[in-house]
Every structure is written in C-alpha cells, then in structure tokens.
C-alpha cells in the first residue's frame, strides 16, 4: 500500500479516539456521553454518519452492521438518533478541517510556481422544511412562501481536488462579504482564483495586506480603468491607482486604516476566448518574468474544478437529502459530505501513478468515476476505518480493483454557450444523463 495513503488513513482513523480526550469540545454532556461500552460507540456513530445516510435509518443500520461483520445485531433507529444527539457539530467540522490539513501533511501536494492554487466560490442548498432549521440556517422566500435555505462559500484546491474550508451564511449576506472576512485566514503560499462576482479593489488589497495572492476575472465594463485597458489593445498592464470610495468604506469596517490617498497596485491581463470575446483578469502577481501572461488563461480555466466539486457533492453525494430534521444532525450531515469527498480524493491521489500506467495502454485518458466511488466507499469505508488495521491492505486492494474497472473517459473541454436554467422550489437531485444514484 502507498505509504502516504497508509499514513493518511492511520491518522484519520485515530480522530475519534483523539476527540475522547476533549469531551468539553465535542460532547453534549462531557463526562457522561460515550463513557459506557455500547454497540453504538463514538467511532461507529462517526463513521456511520460519514458513509452518508440516504436510506431509511433501519436499512442503513442493517447494512452497516452487515459490512462490519462484528457478529452483533443492528440496534434500533431510535438508538442511533439518541447517539447522534450526543455529538456536537464541532466534532465533524474539526474532522473536516483535519482531513484537509492531513492531506498536505501526508501527500506531496501539487503546486503552481510554488503556490497552492485555490478557488473560492459559493453555492446554495435547501434544508428540510422545518421552522427551527430556517431560524438556524436562514430562509429563501418569495411573495408566496419561504423555505429553509443556506449559502456556502467554499475554498477548493484546484490541483489536488481537496475542499479546504467552508463558510456558511444566509441568502441575505453577499458571498463577497463573507470572502472578504475570510482572506485573513488564507495561508500565504496560496493563490486564490475568483469569478467575476468578486471583482473589486477590496479583495486584491486584502490579499496583498495579508501576504497571499489572487486572480479575479473582471467584467470588461467594471470600471473606467478596465474599459481603458481593453480599448488600449495592450496585452497586460500594471496599474497603480487610488482605492475606490466603496473599497475604503469596506476596508475601514474591517479595521484597516485606509484613506483617500491610499493606493493599490495590480496587474491586468487580456485574455482572448475561443469565441473571440475579450476578457480581463486582475492579479496581484506582479512579476511578469516569473508569472508570464500566457499562464493565466489556463489557470482561470482550472477554476471550473470547484463547480465540478459542487456538482459531485450536491448531485452524486446528495447534499440536500438530509437524514434528520434537527439542527444538530443537519450540521453533522453537511460536514460528513465534505469529509467523504476529501477521503475519496486521498484514495484517488494514492492511485495516480497506476492510473497513468493504465492510460498509456488506452486511446483516451480515464479517471475514477466519482459517482461509482461514492457507492463503493459507502461500504468500504466501514471496513477500512473500523475493521482491524491488519485487514486494511486487503480492503484497499479490493476497493481499488473496482475503481480501476469503473473508470470513465476524461471528456475534452467544452466551449458551449452557458445555458442558464431556472431552479424550481420543488427541485430534486439532478444527475447527468449517464449517471444514476449510487448511494
């Protein structure tokens, strides 16, 4: 077995045991919860959640104990509900952040020019129609009705396919506001890619202030400076100008003492799309020799990876298909999806070399099928994380055998015109034509 993968799995298997050392942080009743020997002890409750509970709980429990092969009868769904209530959402939030941090510690992460390449973007999802969930997560409504709904700003490593952070907010708070508040926490070795909805002076100024970098797609008519740059015909230009009035207001509210004389320096790059349309990218990477203009079109194209990540989590992993109707357990469900996704990525990363060998024998390049992997991981995760460590190599080998058999071809890049669709209030999980439910 790959040594990096073994280190990753050994460490993440230990997280529930480490949590036992901090009961004040993770348990509803410290000193009482998970202190007795029960069928549904902490490790089983944690990994049962992370397998993603999409069927009725009775069936999920029966499958779980069948895969576990511990010689025990499955408990009742009432026992599971009570056990889950003992765990605070912080347990799964910290486990998600641990799964991302652990990836960089165990694997040799891919970098661009020595930097990790992240994308920041937002998405929304609905929750079960209960009053208390609307009070916790927020509402989305119109003149007829309102439903519980939440917005999510995610940070995603484009080269390594890891979800690194997530910020939640209501639909009445703009994701740009959430992004601005999060920049201080972005590591200095990260370059963050934003779409055109984040165009401003504020975000590049904050990145420069805190020592990280960014790339932002600018609407051609965003400002007089952008218009003048497009009209000039120049391929790139370094601009120094005073901060806009709106940016000064925002930065002052964030505690940064800027004034009308404060300036910002950034670089504008012209990009010609295959359609002939002109687009403008703003970046804080000012070294034109190290970061050549020709790199940036491809770097921004990679931003689509975060959209693909959202598709996997919302469609294949069925984020909006909740297993519970309580605030506590809905939070558990949300973070369980992120952990599941990151574990999938770790398993795929460890197999990259063998996948490349397989692709050399084929006409087209192939990659693991995320939808199939979700269904396979549902049962293999139980065996990998809860069976004795000496069996780990056997279960990993069996999992990989099926992953290699079910790989799908990598489709060429599409340049179709974007077709916007109206999402109805009674939406269901949406799948591409050649995919079916795997969970």
Describe the structure.
The protein starts with a helix and ends in a 30-residue tail after the last strand. The relative contact order is 0.13. Strands 1, 2, 3, 4, 5, 6, 7, 8 and 9 form a nine-stranded mixed beta sheet that branches. The chain contains 18 helices and eleven strands. Helix 4 runs antiparallel to helix 17 (370-386). It is globular. The model is unreliable at 424-428 (pLDDT under 50). With 439 residues, the chain is α+β, with helices and mostly antiparallel strands.
Question: Strands, helices and their partners?
Answer:
Blueprint lengths: L2 H11 L1 H5 L3 H4 L15 H9 L6 H12 L8 H10 L2 H18 L9 E11 L4 H7 L1 E3 L4 E12 L4 E8 L5 H8 L7 E5 L7 H9 L2 E6 L5 H9 L3 E7 L2 H9 L9 E10 L5 E6 L12 H6 L2 H13 L10 H23 L2 H9 L5 E2 L2 H17 L5 H14 L2 E2 L30
Parallel strand pairs: 1-5, 5-6
Antiparallel strand pairs: 1-3, 2-3, 3-4, 6-9, 7-8, 8-9, 10-11
Helix pairs in contact: 1-7, 4-17, 5-17, 7-15, 17-18
